[in-house]
Amino acid sequence: MLDGKVLILNQNYEPLTVCTVKRALLMLFGGKALSVELRPEQVRSVSAAWAVPSVVRLARYVQAPVRRVVLSKRNLLKRDNYECQYCGARGERLTLDHVVPRKSGGPSTWENLVCACLACNNRKGESRPEQAGLQLRRRPRRPNNISYIRSFVGVTDHRWRPYLFFDDEPPEPLLAHPVAPTDESAR
After folding, report:
1. CATH assignment, 73-124
2. Average pLDDT by consecutive 10-residue portion of the chain (187 residues)?
3. How far apart are CA 178 and CA 174, in angstroms?
4. Alpha carbon distance 40, 28 (integer Å)
5. What are the extents of the domains in the chain?
6. Strand partners, 37
7. Helix %, strand %, coil % for the chain, to 5?
8. Which pTM value belongs to this model?
9. Which of 30, 29, 5, 28 minimizes the C-alpha distance to 18?
């Protein structure tokens, strides 16, 4: 249980990172963080019991570090949720595609690389998507703190969703094994 994941929010509720339950409890006991969401479990000692946090908020604002995720095929597959960015196909062998082809000066960057199935990648060839009659499902972007947690760490607890998803985007499926929903009165 102490190795479980806890979402850490900045003082302004901006998602920063994920830590272990043990580290979160140490931050709470030291006055460096406040509990925002709790799990139904408890950590017990001989004479006391403490609720296990699911989300904690820092007591003081910290400058959020810039997330530098290495550009690799594996990380691009995670960012694009293992689906073709042209047709949405999943489970097929996916390749990397330069939206603006290298032949036309397209760089190998987060903003120019997407996952594509073999059929879409062959159809596109060395042309731009609009020239091949293809359209991107979403614009490729460099991962930020929120997308890093959602795509690379994974949403492991339903209590994290209000802090990692916005009203204008559909919620993505949980990446890891979710914690079973609990009665709302247990908060």
Report:
1. 1.10.30.50
2. 91 92 96 96 94 96 83 91 93 90 94 95 94 94 82 82 68 39 40
3. 7
4. 17
5. 5-64+144-186, 73-124
6. 55
7. 25, 25, 50
8. 0.67
9. 5
Helices and strands in the chain, H and E counts: 5, 6
Contacts of 4 (CB under 8 A, 6+ apart): 20, 21, 39, 52
Q: Distances in Å between the alpha carbon of 45 and those of 31, 42, 50?
A: 20, 10, 9
Cα–Cα distance measured from residue 121 to residue 86, given in angstroms and rounded to the nearest whole number: 9
Q: Are 43 and 49 in contact (CB under 8 A)?
A: yes
Residues with Cβ within 8 Å of residue 42, at least 6 apart in sequence: 49, 50, 51, 52
Provide the residue type at 6 as one letter.
Answer: V
Q: How far apart are CA 129 and CA 148, in angstroms?
A: 27
